[in-house]
Write a structure and sequence with these properties.
Layout (H helix, E strand, L loop, with lengths): L1 H15 L5 H17 L3 H17 L8 H17 L3 H18 L4 H18 L2 H18 L5 H17 L2 H18 L5 H17 L2 H14 L5 H17 L3 H17 L5 H11 L6 H9 L2
Helix pairs in contact: 1-2, 2-3, 2-4, 4-5, 4-6, 5-6, 6-7, 7-8, 8-9, 8-10, 9-10, 10-11, 10-12, 11-12, 12-13, 12-14
């Protein structure tokens, strides 16, 4: 499995680097744990999570006078703690990084962009979309001034902002950011790239919410034409989007057939997300995923 090999190589590399930022090792251990959890390899997942926590707990507060080191460690650890839903600890770490950036480099818009992005993720996980959007708007503003207009950093902040607007139901506000993000991503990544999928899927969310069915047709065809045949998880994800399109068009039985074909790969590959669960249940009804599957997915968020 490509993702597993990549993460194992990354973990091995971090172990060999003297004085490496330990939060990087913890991130990759956590990522490998998520992969194992999603594919029902529970003992391996627990081992990775346990080691990631051991690494976290061994990190001292790096208040050594080197504000960049302290800010970097605090920020990376805060983001990892958000993913683990240890939100009070995450807030303390992220706010410390934000304070350091503001105190020592108040004019560094790149650092401010990362700070606001991290705080936005925290508020989004908490369910406070208004607060999350405030941070994402500021992160996007910083990216616009800190990077070229066609930079992937600009695409990332715009995509995140568009997603938050959609989650809040602000379809009109989401149109511009999702389009900007996709246009930049298309110029950055090759067709068929996993990273391009992220932007295509976000724009598809806007299409369905905004009633832009013709554009949705085009994007689904693009995914079907470019995602490699040998990548079962990604192909299953595309089939979910095809089902979504068919369902909107009133072809309910054909949509359900697509979902039934996609589910086995969604449950055995690393691709399934909360978003996909909601789409599948919206078409098929609740109860299509058994409790064990949903528990594994919940553990791997």
């Amino acid at each position: 499995m490509r993702a597993e090999e990549y993460l194992r190589e990354a973990i091995a590399s971090w172990r060999e680097v003297p004085d490496a930022d330990p939060t990087k090792l913890a991130f990759d251990l956590n990522g490998l744990g998520i992969l194992y959890s999603r594919t029902n390899r529970v003992p391996e997942a627990l081992e990775c999570y346990g080691e990631a926590l051991d690494v976290i707990e061994s990190i001292p507060d790096p208040s050594t006078g080197d504000f960049l080191t302290e800010a970097s460690w605090s920020f990376n650890l805060g983001r990892l703690l958000v993913r683990m839903e240890r939100l009070d600890e995450a807030e303390r770490r992220l706010m410390r990084a934000h304070e350091l950036h503001g105190e020592y480099k108040p004019d560094d818009l790149e650092l401010q962009m990362y700070s606001h992005s991290g705080l936005g993720e925290l508020e989004e996980v908490r369910g406070d979309l208004d607060a999350a959007i405030e941070h994402y708007v500021e992160a996007d503003r910083c990216a616009q001034h800190a990077f070229p207009a066609d930079s992937i950093q600009r695409a990332a902040t715009a995509n995140r902002l568009g997603a938050a607007y959609l989650a809040r139901g602000d379809v009109e506000e989401a149109e511009g950011p999702t389009l900007t993000a996709l246009e930049i991503a298309r110029d950055t990544y090759e067709p068929g790239s996993f990273y391009l999928d992220i932007y295509l899927l976000r724009r598809l969310d806007w299409c369905f919410e905004g009633g832009a069915i013709d554009e949705a047709h085009e994007l689904v065809f693009e995914l079907e034409d470019t995602v490699p045949e040998g990548e079962a998880g990604r192909r299953a994800s595309v089939k979910v989007e095809r089902a979504r399109l068919l369902h909107v068009m009133g072809e309910v039985e054909e949509a359900r057939r697509c979902i039934r074909e996609a589910i086995p790969s969604l449950l055995t590959e690393t691709s399934i997300t909360k978003r996909q669960i909601e789409i599948c249940e919206g078409i098929m009804g609740e109860g299509i995923f058994d409790e064990n599957a949903l528990r594994r997915i919940g553990e791997s968020r």
